[in-house]
Write a structure and sequence with these properties.
The chain has helices at 4-13, 24-41, 45-54, 68-79, 88-100, 110-120, 138-141, 143-153. By secondary structure, the chain is mainly α.
Length: 155
């Protein structure tokens, strides 16, 4: 799903440090978290994988940037059909996940919830241990899963 062309397109427009806290290594860990979760939750892995690489792709800074999710959704919508293909329903799931990923929402479609948990599980990179009560899925709240994801976030 994530090919070199899509990565190149994302990188060419990415405004922040590629190796920074919202850059490529974060996206790779969100992908890893998300695919592991999807195997447990039944989420659509193709949507989860795209979310991982797109959700922070339109950040303008590493701090407070409340519109970055909406910008990411707009960017994803513009790429759909050329840089990647999704069925209409799956594209809407991706756009919803991008729009709401930093809003603290905890209800919705299992694919969207899996995306949000995959991102929240990588908070250790900024010194925050994820709170199980703020994770959406039972799989992400599992103590063993949570611990492994947290350790991964510290690398």
């Amino acid at each position: 799903m994530i090919g070199e062309g899509l990565i190149r397109t994302i990188r060419e427009q990415f405004a922040l440090d590629w190796n920074g806290i919202h850059g490529a290594s974060h996206w790779a860990r969100v992908r890893e978290n998300g695919l592991r979760l999807a195997a447990l939750t039944g989420a659509k892995a193709n949507v989860v994988e795209l979310f991982a690489f797109l959700h922070d792709s339109k950040r303008q800074n590493d701090g407070y940037d409340p519109e970055h999710g909406q910008r990411a959704a707009s960017f994803a919508q513009g790429l759909a059909g050329s840089a990647f293909s999704l069925q209409a329903h799956d594209l809407e799931l991706l756009l919803t996940a991008c729009r709401g990923h930093s809003d603290g929402i905890m209800v919705g479609d299992i694919t969207v919830l899996t995306c949000w948990d995959a991102d929240r599980l990588d908070l250790g990179r900024v010194g925050i241990r994820p709170d199980p009560d703020l994770l959406c899925t039972p799989a992400a709240r599992d103590p063993d899963f949570l611990e492994l994801a947290h350790l991964r976030s510290l690398t």
